[in-house]
Amino acid sequence: MRALLTAACLALLATPGLAVLPDEVLDDPALEARARDLSQGLRCLVCRNESIDESNAELARDLRLLVRERLVAGDTDAQVIDYLVDRYGEYVLLNPPATGSTLLLWGAPLALLLLGGGVAVAHVSGQKRAPQAAGLSEEEEARLKAMLDDRSDG
Amino acid sequence: MIIELGHFALILAFAVAIAQTVVPLVGAHFRWSGWMAMASPAATIQVLLVGFSFAALTYAFVTSDFSLKLVVLNSHTDKPMLYKVSGVWGNHEGSLLLWVLILALFGAAAAWFGGQLPTTLRARVLGVQASVGVAFYAFILFTSNPFERLAVPPFNGEDLNPLLQDPGLAFHPPFLYLGYVGLSMAFSFAVAALLEGRVDAAWGRWVRPWTLAAWLFLTIGIALGSWWAYYELGWGGFWFWDPVENASFMPWLIAAALLHSAIVVEKREALKAWTILLAILAFGFSLVGTFIVRSGVLTSVHAFANDPERGVYILAILGIFTGGALLLYALRAPAMQAKGVFGVVSRESALVANNLLLAVSCFVVFIGTIWPLVAEVAFDRKLSVGPPFFNAAFTPFVIALAALVPLGSILPWKRGNGALWRKLMPVAVLSLALAGLVWAMQTGDSLGGPLGAALGVWLVVGAGVDLATRTGRGALADRIGRLRRLPGADWGKALAHGGLGITIFGVAGLTAWQQEGIEVLDIGDRMELGRYEVVLEDVSRVQGPNYISTMARMHVFEGGRDIGVLLPEKRVYPVAQMPTTEAGIDSGFTRDVYAVIGDPQQGGGYAVRVYIKPFANWIWGGAIIMALGGIVSLMDRRYRVAGGARRKKAAPVTGVPAE
To answer: Per CATH, the architecture of A2-92 is what?
Structure first.
């Protein structure tokens, strides 16, 4: 099904190519590795859920070149990201920074885990007393026995 | 004529489903045996009618009947026969028809094989199942009719989306639907049990095979989709955390939780209310998935319907069924009393932890998937949630779960003891030693590789130890004999857990140790990548049945030894005006060599990408083993033996008069 998205993305293009093209690759392997890392966390804005590292779109290529340009110019990873967020908004980040309302995104699963864990622990340890409670008292045992005897007689 | 008959059969099936909903449910409430008895024949008639309707649509596709709008939009006379048939479900309307066909099939299967169910429970299950059908028949007939005709039929069709013209994707949807819709059985059983007001061990025993079947179909469906993405999309990714993938992954996680908690209901009569809730949620997430795929809310450039009206309709179905079931749950669940009690260290507790981890990990996927929508509507922030989030938030749950599996599967019911640690200590030592070895051997400093190796060994060897402990004590020959006679469920469990370990190792290995080369190659040039060398020998144009291909011929050498030829292609489908890439892959046990041919470059030569993908096949191999575990477990004869025993006891109940 992912294909359909890619297809839609491809359809926007006249000449689909490979994602990262040979002429984009930087000579310095360390810088290139950083560029690839960064690209994987940046969204191709005209595609759906594709990083610029995977995308064949022209815009993705432009962004890849931009990232490399900034890195060659001596920017740190954080500076490159700030630069892109300034221009394209936080929509460009595939991993939304955990600030403001996005804290909920990270916090909600954690809260559910703690809550669920709490309920589970309470349930498991709370039922310990159940067997005694569920058991019959001596008096009850005797009555039960009497009833059963009664029954088998009749 | 056949088309009209098919259309009419679908309308009749709708009518039958309405009757099958109302009559048995009313009958079960008042204990009218005649009314309840109506459910089974109705379920059979329903499946025959939808089956005929589906056959009629398939006939239209196979004979390229272009008076049918759907065939025009999704088929072409030049298309190979396989894709003419798979074109039936390669679109919104046809896939919905497949959906209701499978729904009716499951209902009928419950009618045919559910002879031992208590009469009222069976009537209720079939009634609830039919009510889901009613909603979907109405959806098809009123908003997405596949039998719509064109007044002026065109000369030829517009072809199926070329990306769907692939053997892997031809069978991907039917398996997924078998899974999605299979969970409707668990839902129907849950709602029926709430109506009955009672859940016992027998209920757990009836629900488990249906859930297991649905889960194993989902496993196969998801694996097929992932495998297809790997070889088709051109860079060898196998999972993208795309909303549409997540839509199938969420029900899988919940189904996995459900089939584990149903074991606790069956064996120990505990966790009843929770199991019912999971059954409702599992089908609820199937409906959420349907909504995500078909409404276009989350993936606006999706080829399936992005019609808001349809989205609203599915949302209504989702609201009514999940909301209604949850309301019923709130009213009735407190009455579900647990019988079995268990200690803090026990298999029950381990299964509770398993359920917690699976449920919360499903929630992670869910919240990540819908968060862009929530952020935009509630906080006016336009943001993306992609693979980096899911990888960071989901992986810890996988690790915790994998660490738990061998412990939980060896722990005894009720109360555990120190014996557990004696059995698993060697496995733990082995896993850690291997992780250390891998750490020392690998060139990078990735943590994922060693961790994946450790978890893989822990799960696979742990599953072996689990099987071995089940053979008891004594001479080796006796124990091997006993191993062969172990129930299918034990073997199934070991296979599924081992398969999970293999998949985890495959994912970790591929992610950690993949190598990539991107270069411009002229004819005759070679590219070096690790121990491998790839020579571009030739690029030629090839005419396919309904496409034109640019096919490259690449020779691959491993350490100087010739290991074969790869033929990566770049295809263009003229009718659909769309290109696709077909990777050339040399599959091996420990690695795939994966080559893709790109565009001709301005200065001459072609852009070529070559990957070494270590342990790629282990990912899907593990999934197949998991599914195989499901099948072996389903064949456990105890399901049938128990069924027979039940029938004798249940027989007198059927004769209870209505008053």
So the answer is: Orthogonal Bundle (1.10)
